[in-house]
Amino acid sequence: MILKPADIKDEQIAELERLSSVAPADRKAKIEQELRAVRSGLKAEKDAAYLIDFDLQKSKNTMVIHDLRVEIGGRVAQIDHLLIRRDLTVYVLETKNFHAGVKITEDGEFLRWNDYKKTFEGMASPLAQNERHIAVLKEVFKQIEMPTRLGLRLSPALESFVLIAPTARIDRPKKFDASRVVKADMLLKAIRKEIDKEGLLDTVASMTRFVSPETIENIGKQLVALHVPATFDFAAKFGIAEVEAQPKQAREPAVAYVAPPLTSANEQPKCRSCGSDKLSVQYGKYGYYFKCAACDGNTPIKVDCGKQGHKERIRKDGLKFFRECAQCGTSSLYFTNMS
Question: Per-domain residue ranges for the chain?
């Protein structure tokens, strides 16, 4: 079952493209390099998500969360894909897009091929990166409601895999264990192989953690509720002053769509540019906004329950978006994106 699809990153791409069009020559190349990296990473995540969803979207024994970002104790984990099984084994998946493959040394160092320079170049270990994600997740699991057995709180078993494209080449070392680096289309086979390797004690421990589909769905939904989408200030990153970053033509005033107080006859949201109701909710630098399919325009969203001093917020759950007011204790379906 898919509990959360990947966040749409159109705003990141659009902002980098905009900065590239106005940036000085000495910074344009770096911005375009960042743009290529973002597109490459998104493609790897999208391709892996397709393969994962193909196998598991109808499964009641495994919950799937894509693109989960959690913060706790000043630390952040940006997790590409998360699988939660009924034996409370949680697979933390990191995706990498290696254009010409990857080489792993006997010391466990990762090298990627630079086709321009015709040589291997060092890179950060995605296995080590995933271990940091797991360290953060362990703290997160301590904060959410977990099932108990004989009065004892159950804890998940966190496992790491790095996924690369099915067409990429992996040069594996003989001594260093690189079995957790797999092609995305071979993930389930690799997981089954790990299960087959488990000894008696591991199997018994796994059985004692076995829970219902409803339980793992509840755990997954708690994790999704903690998702904090990333924000990026690319103009600051590349040292481009706001006056440089703005397009030369006059900008439209930022008129937000203000959702009316909750009633039984709430009006349909409209595009501020063309008045169309062919909208979808997206997430960008300044929060949730409407994207218009008719004119490609953006309309900011502001929700207001109508009571002074109250602050409503938008909560995403798959394709559905809810408006919630903590002071009123209300939660209601606000908008549903088309699949």
Answer: 2-225, 252-336
